[in-house]
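step 3/5: co-fold with cytidine-5'-triphosphate
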Amino acid sequence: MAKISLGVTSSVSIYKACEILREFQKEGHEVQVIETKNATALIPPALFNALSGRRTIVELFDDQNAWSVAHVALAKEIGLFVVAPATANILAKFAQGLADDFLSTFYLAVQAPILIAPAMNEAMWIHPQTQDNVRRLRERGVEFVDPAGGYLACGDEGMGRLADPNLIVARGLELLCRGSSLQGKKVLVTAGPTREAMDPVRYLSNRSSGKMGFEIAREARRRGAEVVLVTGPVTIAPPPGIEVVRVVSAAEMKAAVDKRFSKADVTVMAAAVADFTFAAPAVRKIKKEGLKTSLDIVRTPDILKGLGERKRPGQTLVGFAAETNAAAAAARKKIREKNLDLIVANDVSREGIGFDADANQAVLTDRRGRSRKTDVLSKRALAAVIWDAVEGLRGQKK
Ligand code: CTP
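step 4/5: write tokens
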């Protein structure tokens, strides 16, 4: 049994929220309703109180909730947040991070999967501003059940009707499963760059921020896995609930990963391991006068390739490729050469995505040679897409 928050806003289709609530309950889940103030003009909280068996939340500051910061406390407890019906106004508020009532404040605190089912007049739905808000939310990993066509309350025919409640509930239950789909599984993730010392003050490295690997680790934890994150030097904070192993050089990363690989059900090498290291790093800082005009560099060992050679049946190995022209053929070749199950190729040559950016777009190619390009997504949303692909592949293995 999970706890679900059902956000309800002031669309005429609000009556269908009662059915959605009931369906989730039939599946054995507890539902906490959150209404906006405008929604209470259509259906007063008393009806939702009676249906849910819990006091409906409307106000941000409420005596009953004074014991704690209620929106944060509730956000931590839930396995799914559904907003159905969602008005154009709430989409705009979520997209902007505007937090002026309980529901919009709650949205910012939620870590669980979020599912939104919009309902509004067709002109409002297709308005570029609304579509822009939807796109921004999708980029952040929010899932949607799009409105359907048909007769609208305003008398018009068109897109904008709340989707079938059964569809909304079915999608919600799928998202809820994500919360435990990796339960009992051990996951090893690498992230960040490595630093190869030239002397005690200088090093060779790359622009990786570690964000992608950290999001992959966070998503695995969220799905119930026991996660070890081996990370090179980064400035971002690790997600909660996972074991973090900090390394500096490619050699250290290899040692840390090799030690843990045999226990891992899934290993994701998201680190941007330096391809070269110095043949003989100096023990003391090299003086300018002593600097040579060329440096002796040697290849670092390919950690991923080594893992591919050791991989046992049942283990899943995911590699990354930092391509400047994401070529599926190159990905297929790497899958074979390194014995991978999945390769995530991202185009690091484009501004605003890939290295050091918050957004990413990738081509996922699996061991059967199937390739697909994702939309431009936040790294958090891309992490969920990658795990869906990994879980899909693991399902086929059985
Ligand atoms: N990798 C590794 N050990 C290295 C270098 C890379 O394990 N010494 C891993 C990375 O973590 C990543 C994948 O291998 O998962 C990247 O493979 P690579 O062949 O380096 O791909 P590209 O970055 O695309 O490099 P290139 O363009 O040189 O092929």
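step 5/5: annotate
The chain has two domains: 3-178, 186-397.
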